[in-house]
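Annotated sample (chain length 238).
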Amino acid sequence: MIKLENITKIYKNLDTETVALKNINLEIKKGEFVAIMGPSGSGKSTLMHIIGCLDKPTSGKYFLEGKDVSTLNDDELAEIRKRKIGFVFQAYNLLPRVRVIEQVELPLVYAGIKPEERREKAINALKASAFPDNFWYHYPNQISGGMQQRVAIARALVNDPLLILADEPTGNLDTKTGEIVLDTFQRLNFEFGKTIVLVTHEEYVAKHAERISLIRDGEIIDEFKVKDRIIINSHITK
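Output written by the structure step:
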């Protein structure tokens, strides 16, 4: 579903050039759960921005479902983000005075979906993210950090995207709460077949994925299947 060919990203500032990515080659199949792992400054967030059509490469090609999206203009990239990609960030980015179910509906409001259909889709997304129904009408300050992140996951799911990109999704959470969020991603992958790309600097978090791509100094230095993968709920099998 995703194919990157010799992707390079260079940032220019006056007479200075910073090479963020160097000749990245990466393939991700539909239904895979892949972790991109690397230290701070390794280029992993830049890579995620390119995969998520938030930025364009300086050179190289990016194919999404066989279409070269690396040459598209900003409006065309925005359309792909709206229709095909769901984002989950370290910061939950919830609006403080908007109830949970309405937070999840927001992408559908922008898409012009009718209220009845919005509500149905939001409920389905909240159920898929394992968010308890007795909190659907609470405000963000009335629920825990882990629950707020699951709202963000539901919001990312509501348009039924092909791809979910998660950038350090457990970064603001304690270990136990982070496990709940990672379990949610595993459920979405196992039970709903969602393709998930998770960006992290933590090996423990990366081991919840089925494959890890190691990035350092803007280059992918290794890729491997996770042999000792952490499966949170043992009753879930793929």
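Annotation: The chain is about 35% helix and 30% strand.
Annotation: The two ends are 19 Å apart (CA to CA).
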